[in-house]
Amino acid sequence: QVQLVESGGGLVQAGGSLKLSCATSGSTLRSYTVGWFRQAPGKKREFVASINWSGDRTYGPDSVKGRFTISRDNAKNTVYLQMNSLKPDDTAVYYCARAGSLGLGVSSAEYLYNDWGQGTQVTVSS
To answer: How far apart are the C-alpha atoms of 17 and 57, rounded to whole Å?
Structure first.
């Protein structure tokens, strides 16, 4: 079973930055599309960013464009989410997820992601 581990969450003031990391235990991210999602209390989980296996394609919703950047270091088997200009509305538990199949491009579709981490809390104070 693939275990994904997120780290880097915390408490930050509005306008601040955080960098989340996603790594695996006993498996690999290198050949797979990886996505970041988030879930705020009382809300549905929503897509934040996706990156293809090589890192040359990324995708994200308008709500985070220009503020969040997804990247990967395949040598370190790690995917990152750099979050700048954070807003209180960005407060949520952030999850990384690995696509279930090889050869996918970027995607916001949750059903394409088979393996999920436990999440890391991001809290943005006003």
So the answer is: 23
In whole angstroms, what is the distance from residue 10 CA to residue 119 CA?
Answer: 12
Structure tokens at 65: 């464009």
Instruction: Kindly report the backbone phi and psi dihedral angles of residue 88, in degrees, each rounded to the nearest multiple of 5, phi listed first.
Output: -55, -30
Residue 20 neighbours by CB distance under 10 Å? 23
Pairwise CA distance, residues 32 & 58, whole Å: 13
Residue that is written with structure tokens 């995917």 in the block:
79
Q: 123: pLDDT confidence band, cut at 50, 70 and 90?
A: very high
pLDDT digits (tens, 9 = 90+) for 58-98: 999 999 999 999 999 999 999 999 999 999 999 999 999 99
DSSP assigned state of 117: B
For residues 3 and 17, what is the distance between their CA atoms, to the nearest angstrom?
A: 26
